Amino acid sequence: MPIIDGQNLNSDNIDVNAVRGPISVWDEYPEECGFTGWLFWEREKQKHLVRQIKEEIIALSSLSEDTIVGKDLTAKTKIEQLRSQIEPWMKHGADNW
Q1: How far apart are CA 21 and CA 34, in angstroms?
Q2: Residue 65 and residue 57 in contact, taking contact as beta carbons nearer than 8 Å
Q3: Which of 96, 97, 92 is CA-nearest to residue 25?
Q4: Which residue from 13, 23, 64, 81 puts its CA 20 to 30 A from 42's CA?
Q5: What is the pLDDT of residue 32?
Q6: φ and ψ at 68, to 5 degrees?
Q7: What is the pTM of this model?
């Protein structure tokens, strides 16, 4: 059986917090960890998607609210749909991306 710091892994005395992963995907990792680079690229992908949606919102906001932009969608309803897609990212600072 593998042993960590002199303790058996099957022991009832294992610190549960040491076994769990990070609470959030935005947590910090050591510099030498390769996961840090991957996490950076994943954050940048999400930021890029949010920026694209914001650009589309800006383009649609230049149109009249009554303009039809898709299948039975006015510019106003399309903007509302796009803003709802960005909403989950607001708590991570998407306002400033």
Answers
A1: 16
A2: no
A3: 92
A4: 81
A5: 72
A6: -85, 125
A7: 0.62
Q: Spell out the domain ranges in the chain.
A: 64-97
Tokens of 41: 């690229």
Q: Is the separation of the CB atoms in 43 and 89 below 8 Å?
A: no
Closest to 83 (Cα-Cα) out of 67, 96, 68, 94? 94
- Residue (of 93, 25, 92, 87) closest to 53 by Cα position: 87
Which residue type is seen at 20? R
Cβ–Cβ under 8 Å, residues 17 and 23: no
Report the pLDDT value the prediction gives residue 15, as an integer from 0 to 100: 56
Residue tagged 């930021």 (tokens): 47
Instruction: Please give the Cα distance from 16 to 82 (Å, whole number).
Output: 40
Please give the sequence-ordered ranges of beta strands (E in DSSP) within the chain, or none if there are none: 3-4, 7-8, 68-70, 73-74
Here the tokens at position 57 are: 């919102």
